[in-house]
Amino acid sequence: MTDTATMAMFPLGMVLLPTMVVPIHVFEPRYRQMTKDCLDSDREFAVVLIERGSEVGGGDTRTHAGTVARIIEAQEFPDGRWGLVAGGIRRIRVSRWLEDDPYPRAEVQDWPDAEQSEEDLDYVAVQLPPTTTVWRRVLALQSELGAPGPPAAFELSDDPAAAVWQLAALSPLGPLDRQRLLTAEGTAHRLGLLAEFLADAEEVIRARIEMG
Description:
Elements: E1 4-12, E2 21-26, H1 29-40, E3 44-52, E4 61-76, E5 82-97, E6 105-110, H2 118-144, H3 160-169, H4 175-182, H5 187-211
Helix pairs in contact: 2-5, 3-5, 4-5
């Protein structure tokens, strides 16, 4: 059983995946305090998706699976706002939400992937290269529409599990698809889902290009 820890939580309208790096604008007083507390400790908080409601003011409905974020860069502005760059580190599951005072907190457990079977490992070894090819093609098509993306020469990790997370983090997907990838049980399942999502994305982008 994974140990439970109390962690600062940042519910957002986006899904942070492991390996993903994102800018975060912190303007609410409660999250300004959270930022200072994190910088004074281990620089970590957890990001969870808001299923219903708003990022501002509370009263939202939150998912119970998220990702630990580590603050890479932090800049405080004269009016007290913060600009952060944070990177996704590992999955967590929420065991219990605590009071949102002085900011959202929860008891969480780390959620590593289960050990993969030989069949799963073989599947990933066979399917990762063609999925990567589709991913690069989708990014190239996206660039035709003027959408930003990673450089064409971006090199994936040699670790297949990390590479799948990178592909997922850098793919043009909506928050619900990203949440499904986050909660997938293992690298093989995650890769299979990602291949489906990329095929759908390629079809949509090609249609947009044809429509001009």
